[in-house]
Design goal:
The chain is α+β, with helices and mostly antiparallel strands. About 40% of the residues lie in helices and about 25% in strands.
C-alpha cells in the first residue's frame, strides 16, 4: 500500500513542477510578445516545447473563432497517433472522449469559457488508437478574449495519468482488503488520532476507525463517532487510559496491560502500539476479560461446590498417594460401599486390596506414577465383611503446584449387578444388531459432542460411505453449511434434555460430492447405561422433498392463477355494468353539447362530465384488459415497426435524464396482436421504468426470435415449447423484492404514493399479453434494476403495414331503417336519440321476443339490426341468426360492454362480424353504421352468418 501512495505523490509533485515551469515560460512568452522581441519569443517558445517534451506533456492551442486546434507530437503520441492523423477541430477531439466523461468535460469547459472559473482542469479518458482508454489530466486557460469578453484563444496541456489512476485503484483495493481483514477479526481493534496539549500531555483521542468486534464491545457505530473524541463520547473515562496511550504515542514503545473501563463496565486486556513513526495515531487491540476474572472469582466457589459434590456423590471416591496410602479423600459413599469409616481408612494402605491382588495393584500404581489414567478398569475388591465385589475404577493423577504427580483420585463403582446383566444384554444386542443390519434406515449413535460412535444399516447405498468410514468423524462435517446451524441447535437442545426426542431435516454431502436430503429422529440416551449416546434413525427423503417442493410450487402457481382469474371475473362483471352507464352518459353529453353554444354556462359543466366519463371509460377498459375480456382487433405485425413508431413518444415520456436504447433484431418474425393494445403495453412498461429511476438511468428495449424447449418450459409452467418473439424492457432503477413481485400484476396494487397511480398499468399489461396467447416474466433485485420479458407466439403470416387512421370531421348520416335491440333501458333510450339525430328511422325492442314481433309487423325493409350481445333469454347472436332468415338482406351490428364467448373467442372478434364496443361516441357509432350499411355497395356481406 505504501508503494502506491509514494508513486501517487511522486506523480503529483512532478506535475506541479512542470506546470510551474510552463507557467513561467508562458509569462515570458507573453512579455516578449508585448515588447516585440521576436527572437527572444521564439527562443522561449522553443524552451516551452522542450519542457513539454521533457515533462511528457501534450500541449494544445485552440483558436476558438476558426475552431483550429494546434497540438504537439506528444499529444498525438499519447493516443498512438501521428500528428497528421489527429483531426484539428474541436469536434474531432470530443469524439475521442469516453462517453461516461463527456458531460462532465463539456460542463467544465463551458464554465471556464464563460469566465466562471480561473482555469480549465479536468480528469477524463481518451480513446487510444488501439481502442484502449487513456486517463489524462487536462489543464488550460483562455489566453485572449475580445472586448465583449468572448474567448478567442485557449491553450493548455494533457498529462497521461493512467498509471496514477491505476495506483489509486490499487490503493483503494488495499484499503478494502485491510477493512475486510479487520471486519472479521475476532478481537476488537481501533485506530485513534492523538490530540496533545501545549504541555505535551495527551489531551484527547479521536476515533478514526474500528472494526465490527470493537463496535460490539463498545456499542458504538463508526459512522456516528468518526472524528469525535473519547472525552466527548465517554467523559467519565479514567485518566489512566490517556496516560498509557500518551506514553505509547510519544515513545513508540508498545504496551500490554489490563485496565477497567468505567463507561462500558468491562475489564480489558489491551495491546497498544504506534503504527507509524509518528505520534499522530495509535492502534489498540482489545480483549474483554471481564468474564475470565469473574470465572476466577467463581473458582473458589467451585472448589467448595466440588467438596460438597464429593461428599454427596453416590460412588466411592478415594484419594491415594503413590504408595497406596489413603490420603485426603474417603467419602461417605466409600464408607457405605466398602464398610470402613474414613477414620479407619485414612493413613493406611488401601484395605480393599486382597492379598492375592497386591501384584495387580502394584501395576496400577506404576500407571499412576507415569501420569496415566484408568477409565472403567474392572477389578475385584474385598469389602470389610470379606465379600469380593466387582468394581469399575476411574482414576486420574493428582499434581502439586509444581506439576509433580503426588497421587491419584479414584472413583469406584459397584458393577456387580451390571455384570449379571451383561450376559442378557449381549443376547439382546445381538438380536438388535441383526434387526438394524436389515433395516432400510441408517441407525447412528453420537456422543454428546456429536462424534459418530456407531453406524448400522445401508449407509453405503444412501451416502456412499461404509459404516466404519463414518465412525470417529464429526457428524456435522458432512452437513450442508446452510443447514449446519439449525441442526447444531436441535442437537444441542437434545443433548440438554435427557430422554428427549427431536426430528429434523438436513442436507448431507454424498461421497460423490452431491447433496442428499435426510430426515433424522434423534433420542437422547446418553444416560442409558447400555447405549450411552444420541441415537439417530436416519432416512433419505431426497425424492420426497423434491416432490413436495414441486407440489408446493404448483399449488402456489395454481392459487395465484385462481386468484387472478377470480379478480378478472369480478373486474369483467364490474366493467359490463359501468360500460352501460358510460354509454348513456357519453350519449346524452354529446347530444347536449350539440345543442349548446360557447356562451352558454352549461357547456363547461357538460365538458367536465364528458372528461370524467372518458376517464371512467379508460379505467373500465383497463379492467377489461386485465380480465382478458377486452374486445380487440388483432393484426399480423412486426414488433420492430411498432417500437420504432413509438420511439419519439417514449423518449418524451421518460424524460431527458433517462437514456433510451433500442436494440432490435435484424430479422424478426411476425406476431398477431392488437396494435393499439400493445402500444399501451409499451407505454405502461416505460412509465413503470421511468418511475423506478427518479434520478435518471437507462432504459433498454430489445427484440429477438427465440425458441423455448421442453427443459426451459418445465421450469416456467406458464410457457409452452415453441417459437416466440421476445420483447424485453430493462431499466437500471431501484428494482423490487420478492414480496412486491408476488403482487406485481394484481389490479390496484401499487408501490407509489397515494394519488400517484391506479395500480392498473401492469395489470393491463398482464391481461393484454395473456389475451395475445403469450406470457410475461419479471426479473428484478433490489437496487439492481428490473427486466420484463414478454413472449408472444410467432406466426408465419406476412406482417401488415401499420397505418394510423385519420379522425372523421363530420358525422356520417343516413335515412335507412334500423332495428335497435337493447335490454338496458338507459342505453336503449340514448341510442335511439343518437340514431334519430343522425337521420335514421328507428324501431326499438327490449329483448328478442319484442324484436320478432316488430319484424313481423313491419312491412318495409330493415337495413340494419343493431343488437346487444348479452341479453336475458335469447342472446344477440342467436337473435341475428333467426331474424336473417326473415330479412336476409339485413345487415347486423353487434354491441356490448362485456364479452362472453358468444361473438368472440378470448376477446377477439370474429372477422365475419361487425362489432362496436360500449361505451361508444356518437361519431364512432355514426361511422360504424355507415361502414356496415355501405358494405352492400362494395359487394360485402360481413353480417351474413352463413358464409
Amino acid at each position: 500500500m505504501s508503494s502506491e501512495i509514494s508513486k501517487k505523490k511522486e506523480l503529483e509533485e512532478k506535475l506541479l513542477r512542470l506546470q510551474q515551469e510552463i507557467a513561467g515560460l508562458k509569462d515570458s512568452l507573453s512579455l516578449k510578445k508585448v515588447r516585440g522581441d521576436g527572437a527572444a519569443a521564439g527562443e522561449n517558445r522553443g524552451r516551452l516545447e522542450l519542457v513539454l517534451d521533457g515533462g511528457d506533456l501534450g500541449s494544445w492551442d485552440w483558436d476558438i473563432p476558426s475552431d483550429m486546434n494546434r497540438i504537439n507530437e506528444r499529444w498525438a503520441e499519447m493516443l498512438g497517433y501521428r500528428l497528421e492523423e489527429i483531426e484539428p477541430r474541436y469536434e474531432g477531439w470530443e469524439k475521442l472522449i469516453h462517453p461516461d466523461d463527456l458531460t462532465r468535460v463539456r460542463e467544465t469547459l463551458a464554465a471556464h469559457l464563460e469566465g466562471r472559473t480561473a482555469f480549465y482542469e479536468v480528469e477524463h479518458r481518451l480513446r487510444h488508437k488501439s481502442g484502449d482508454w487513456v486517463w489524462v489530466l487536462t489543464k488550460g486557460k483562455v489566453t485572449a478574449r475580445d472586448a465583449s469578453g468572448h474567448p478567442l484563444r485557449m491553450a493548455g496541456t494533457h498529462l497521461d495519468i493512467t498509471e496514477r489512476i491505476r495506483a489509486e485503484e490499487a490503493l483503494r483495493k488495499n484499503v478494502r482488503e485491510f477493512e475486510g481483514l479487520m471486519k472479521y477479526m475476532a478481537n476488537a481493534f481501533v485506530v485513534w488520532e492523538t490530540v496533545f496539549g501545549e504541555d505535551g500531555r495527551l489531551k484527547d483521542i479521536v476515533f478514526n476507525y474500528f472494526n465490527d468486534a470493537y463496535s460490539r464491545v463498545s456499542g458504538l457505530k463508526l459512522d456516528d463517532v468518526r472524528g469525535r473524541g473519547v472525552r466527548e463520547i465517554w467523559p467519565e473515562t479514567e485518566e489512566s487510559w490517556y496516560e498509557v496511550y500518551g506514553e505509547v504515542a510519544l515513545t513508540g514503545v508498545p504496551k500490554t496491560f489490563e485496565m477497567y473501563h468505567k463507561p462500558t463496565r468491562g475489564l480489558y486486556a489491551c495491546n497498544a502500539y504506534r503504527p507509524w513513526d509518528s505520534k499522530d495515531r495509535i492502534c489498540v487491540v482489545f480483549e474483554d476479560i471481564t468474564q475470565r476474572r469473574e470465572a476466577e472469582g467463581a473458582l473458589q466457589k467451585t472448589n467448595e461446590l466440588l467438596k460438597a459434590i464429593i461428599e454427596a456423590a453416590p460412588v466411592a471416591i478415594i484419594g491415594l498417594d503413590l504408595d497406596g496410602i489413603v490420603r485426603m479423600v474417603w467419602n461417605p459413599a466409600a464408607e457405605k460401599m466398602l464398610g470402613w469409616t474414613a477414620q479407619e481408612a485414612m493413613g493406611k494402605f488401601l484395605p480393599t486390596v486382597p492379598t492375592d491382588k497386591r501384584e495387580e495393584f502394584q501395576k496400577y500404581r506404576e500407571w499412576m506414577r507415569k501420569g496415566l489414567t484408568m477409565k472403567g478398569v474392572e477389578v475385584r475388591r474385598q469389602r470389610r465383611d470379606g465379600v469380593l465385589v466387582d468394581y469399575s475404577i476411574y482414576a486420574s493423577p493428582l499434581h502439586d503446584s509444581s506439576g509433580k504427580i503426588v497421587g491419584n483420585i479414584a472413583v469406584m463403582v459397584d458393577i456387580t449387578e451390571h455384570k449379571r446383566a451383561e450376559a442378557a444384554l449381549r443376547t439382546s444386542e445381538e438380536r438388535f444388531k441383526r434387526l438394524v443390519q436389515n433395516s432400510s434406515d441408517v441407525i447412528a449413535i453420537l456422543d454428546e459432542k456429536g462424534t459418530v460412535t456407531s453406524v448400522s444399516g445401508p449407509s453405503k447405498a444412501i451416502v456412499g460411505y461404509e459404516p466404519e468410514e463414518l465412525v470417529g468423524t464429526h457428524a456435522f462435517d458432512h452437513i450442508h453449511p446452510g443447514d449446519r446451524e439449525s441442526t447444531l441447535k436441535t442437537f444441542t437442545e437434545g443433548v440438554a434434555q435427557a430422554g428427549s426426542t427431536h426430528r429434523w431435516e438436513y442436507r448431507f454431502r454424498h461421497r460423490d460430492g452431491s447433496w442428499v436430503v435426510m430426515e433424522a429422529v434423534g433420542t437422547n440416551l446418553l444416560k442409558d447405561p447400555v447405549v450411552k449416546g444420541i441415537v439417530l434413525n436416519i432416512r433419505e427423503i431426497t425424492e420426497r422433498k423434491d416432490a413436495e417442493e414441486e407440489r408446493n410450487k404448483l399449488q402456489e402457481q395454481l392459487q395465484q392463477a385462481m386468484k387472478m382469474e377470480a379478480v378478472g371475473r369480478l373486474a369483467g362483471g364490474v366493467a359490463h355494468d359501468f360500460n352501460n352507464l358510460l354509454t348513456v352518459i357519453h350519449g346524452y353529453v354529446e347530444l347536449a353539447r350539440m345543442k349548446l353554444t360557447p356562451p352558454d354556462p352549461l357547456l363547461k359543466a357538460i365538458d367536465g362530465i364528458h372528461r370524467a366519463a372518458e376517464s371512467a371509460a379508460a379505467l373500465t377498459n383497463q379492467l377489461l384488459a386485465f380480465s382478458r375480456r377486452q374486445i380487440i382487433e388483432p393484426k399480423v405485425l412486426n414488433l420492430n415497426d411498432l417500437i420504432e413508431g413509438l420511439a419519439k413518444m417514449l423518449t418524451r415520456l421518460i424524460g431527458e435524464d433517462i437514456e433510451l436504447k433500442i436494440v432490435l433484431a435484424g430479422v424478426l418474425g411476425s406476431v398477431r396482436v392488437d396494435p393499439g393494445q400493445f402500444e399501451q403495453v409499451l407505454v405502461n412498461l416505460a412509465v413503470n421504468a421511468r418511475d423506478a429511476m427518479p434520478n435518471g438511468g437507462r432504459l433498454v428495449i430489445e427484440t429477438a426470435d427465440v425458441e423455448l424447449d421442453e427443459e426451459y418450459c418445465s421450469r416456467h409452467p406458464q410457457m409452452q415449447p415453441g417459437r416466440y418473439i421476445q420483447l424485453a424492457m430493462s431499466d437500471t432503477g431501484h428494482g423490487m423484492g420478492e414480496e412486491v413481485k408476488r403482487h406485481l400484476f394484481e389490479p390496484f396494487f401499487t408501490t407509489k404514493d397515494k394519488g400517484q397511480g391506479t395500480g392498473l398499468g401492469l395489470a393491463t399489461t398482464f391481461g393484454a399479453v395473456k389475451q395475445a396467447g403469450g406470457a410475461i416474466e419479471v426479473y428484478s433485485e433490489v437496487d439492481r434494476g428490473t427486466t420484463f420479458k414478454i413472449y408472444l407466439p410467432r406466426v408465419e403470416e406476412q406482417a401488415e403495414r401499420l397505418v394510423k387512421e385519420a379522425p372523421d370531421l363530420e358525422l356520417a348520416r343516413g335515412k335507412e331503417t334500423i332495428l335497435l335491440v337493447e335490454d338496458d333501458e338507459g342505453v336503449r333510450d340514448v341510442a335511439l336519440n343518437i340514431l334519430e339525430h343522425l337521420g335514421y328511422r328507428v324501431l326499438t325492442a327490449a329483448n328478442g321476443g319484442e324484436a320478432f314481433l316488430l319484424v313481423e309487423k313491419h312491412a318495409g325493409p330493415i337495413a340494419l339490426l343493431m343488437t346487444d350481445v348479452v341479453m336475458p333469454g335469447i342472446n344477440g347472436r342467436e337473435l341475428a341468426e333467426r331474424l336473417l332468415r326473415l330479412k336476409p338482406d339485413m345487415k347486423v351490428l353487434f354491441t356490448s360492454g362485456y364479452t362472453e364467448n358468444v361473438i368472440v373467442h378470448h376477446g377477439v372478434v370474429d372477422r365475419n362480424l361487425n362489432f362496436i364496443g360500449k361505451p361508444y361516441s356518437m361519431q364512432a357509432l355514426a361511422r360504424k353504421i355507415r361502414d356496415v350499411l355501405d358494405q352492400a355497395n362494395r359487394g360485402e356481406r360481413r353480417g351474413d352468418h352463413n358464409g
